[in-house]
Amino acid sequence: MKKVYNFNAGPCVLPQPAVDAAIEALKDFNGTGMPVISVSHRSKEWDAVMDECRGLWRELLHIPEEYEILFLGGGASLQFLMVAMNLLENKAGYLETGVWAKKALKEAKGIGNAVCIASSADTTYNYIPKGYEIPKDLDYFHITTNNTIYGTEIKYDMDCPVNLVADMSSDIMSRPVDVTKYALIYGGAQKNVGPAGVTFVIVRKDVLGKVTRYLPTMLDYRTHIDGGSMFNTPPVFSIYVMNETLKWVKGLGGVEAIHKMNLEKAQILYDEIDRNPLFVGTAAKEDRSIMNVCFVMAPGYEELQDEFLNFAKAHGMVGVKGHRSVGGFRASIYNACPKSAVQALIDCMQEFEKMHK
User: Fold this and answer.
1) 356-to-303, 304, 315, 344 alpha-carbon distances in Å
2) pLDDT at 104 over 70
3) How confident is the model at residue 326 (pLDDT cuts 50, 70, 90)?
4) N or C: less crowded end of the chain, CB within 10 Å?
5) How far apart are CA 116 and CA 2, in angstroms?
6) Catalytic residue (one of 100, 139, 171, 265)
7) DSSP 176
8) Cis omega before residue 216 (within 30°)?
C-alpha cells in the first residue's frame, strides 16, 4: 500500500485497530454469519454494541447519570436546528467564532430570538473573543469549541450563568471535559470518534420539555431518549466503528493520555511554523487549536504556495491544503494522527526551506 500521511479535516484518519475490526465485522459480525451492515438493529448482538458504546462514552468523559447519550443521524448541521427547537423559548445567545458557529446561529434565528453575544468575524475568525458578558436571561449560550477552518479552539470549560451548549464536533475526546459545565454537547463523529454518518449528543435531561412550541417527533430529543437512539434504524456501521475507536482510546489510557499526545503533536508543529521563515501561523497564539493547525506562506513567499502544496503531496502529505474559503495550509492532527506523521510534515517543511534559502 502507498505510504501517505493523512491530514484531512474530516472524514479523517482513524485508528488502525478500529479499521481492522470494521473490516472483519463486514465479513462476519460477532459470529452471526452476517456483515454488520446487515444485522438487525433489534438483535441482542447489536444491543450489546450500543450498550458498550454508551458505556465507553460515559466512562471516558465521566458523564453523570443525569445525562443521556444519543447516537443520531443528520450531522452537527441538524443539531443546529434541534438545539434551538428543544431549548429556545425566549432568547438564546451565540458566540460566533467561525463558519459553523455562524450557521448554528442562523438556524436558531429561524426558530426564535437568537443573538450574537460576541464575534471574531472582524479579523476573519483568527481569535476567540474575550471580555464579553453572558446575559443571565438567556435560555442557553452556544459555543463552538474548535474551529476547523480557522484553527482556533476554546481549550477550557467555561463557567456560564445559563445553560451552556457546545458543538464539539472536532475536539471531542481530544482533551478532558467537565461535562457537568454543559447542558448539552453535540457533534459529528468524523473527526475523533468514528466515521461520518453518526452524530453524538450528550444532554442533561432536566433541560428538556421546557419549550411551548410543537416539536416534530424526529426533532424531539425525548423521542430518541425513549427509543434508546433506535426510534428509527440507527447508522449501525458508523456506531460500530465509533465503538471500536473508543475502545482504542481507552486502551491508550483514556482521554487524559491522548490529550498529552495531542499537546505534544501540536507543539512540535507550531514550533516549526514559528521557526521556519517560509511559514507563518494564522491563529492568535493563545487560541491556537491543537486539532487543526492553520498556516500560510510568510510575507514575501506567497508565490511559493502551490509549489509547497505539490512538494508536500509528492512526499505523501494528504489533505494539507487549507479550506477553500481561506487558502493556505491546514494540518488536521486529530487523535489517530500519529506523531510520526506530524514529524514527516515538519521534515517536509524543513526540506522545502533548504530549497529556497
Assistant:
1) 12, 9, 17, 19
2) yes
3) confident
4) N
5) 47
6) 100
7) -
8) no
Q: Is the pLDDT of residue 50 over 80?
A: yes
Hey, which bits of 238-334 come out as E strands?
A: 279-281, 292-297, 317-318, 329-332
Q: Tell which of 203, 232, 252 closes a domain.
A: 252
Same domain, 224 and 316: no
**Tens digits of residue pLDDT in 340-356:** 999 999 999 999 999 99
Structurally, the chain folds into a number of domains equal to 2
**Neighbouring residues of 154: CB distance < 8 A, sequence distance ≥ 6:** 97, 128, 143, 145, 146, 287
Residue 182 has pLDDT above 80, yes or no: yes
Q: Residue 2 catalytic?
A: no
Q: Which of 252, 284, 316 is the last residue of a domain?
A: 252
Q: What is the CATH number of the domain that holds 289?
A: 3.90.1150.10
For residue 100, indicate whether it is catalytic.
yes
| Residue for grid cell 491530514 | 7
**Which domain range does residue 284 map to?**
254-355
- Nearest residue to 68 via CA among 219, 229, 249, 199: 229
pLDDT at position 97: 98
Got the DSSP string for 201-219? EEEEGGGSS---S---GGG
pLDDT the model gives residue 1: 62
Which pLDDT band, with edges at 50, 70 and 90, does 319 fall under? very high
- Whether residue 88 contacts residue 66, with contact meaning beta carbons closer than 8 Å, is answered with no
pTM tops 0.85, yes or no: yes
Note whether residue 8 is domain-resident: no
Q: Pick the catalytic residue from 46, 155, 191, 248.
A: 191
Amino acid identity for residue 282 in this structure: T
